[in-house]
Each structure stands twice: as structure tokens, then as C-alpha cells.
Design a protein that fits this description.
Number of helices: 2
Distance between the termini: 28 Å
Order of helices and strands: EEHH
Oligomer: single chain
Strand order of the largest sheet: 1-2
Strand content: 25-35%
Shape: globular
Structural class: alpha+beta
Length: 71
């Protein structure tokens, strides 16, 4: 699987940036819309904090570990 690092960015109707996270790692074949949604809604941690997730790999690992713990 190929991975890309991108800047996730969401703007309001006037062009003002309301969300931005740089260097987000996502599968290369994902659209920018998918990248923006995952980065803004599903990556855990305070934006800008060192603990903030910055990769779909981290997201999948966190979810898989949670499901494993439930079992």
C-alpha cells in the first residue's frame, strides 16, 4: 500500500481556514475530501499537541486495539 503525507484543510464559505493539520499520513489513493474528514473528525488529540495522531495507521491501530480489548 502506498502512503502520502498531505495537509488537511477545511475552509468556510468565505475562504477562511477553519481547520488545518499538516503532514497527515493517508493512503495515496484517498481523495482530499476523505483526508480532510478523517483528520478533522477521527484523529485523536489536541490539534498542535505532540500527542495528536497524524496518521491513518495510528487511527486504525487505536481502533483495532480497542476492539481487541473489548473481546
Amino acid at each position: 500500500m502506498e502512503w502520502d503525507r498531505r495537509t488537511a484543510s477545511i475552509s468556510d464559505s468565505k475562504g477562511n481556514i477553519i481547520f488545518e493539520q499538516k503532514d497527515v499520513e493517508v493512503p495515496a489513493d484517498w481523495s482530499m475530501t476523505a483526508t480532510n474528514i478523517v483528520a478533522s473528525k477521527y484523529l485523536h488529540g489536541q490539534l498542535g499537541a505532540p500527542e495528536r495522531e497524524n496518521s491513518v495507521r495510528q487511527l486504525v491501530s487505536r481502533v483495532a486495539e480497542t476492539i481487541r480489548d473489548w473481546a
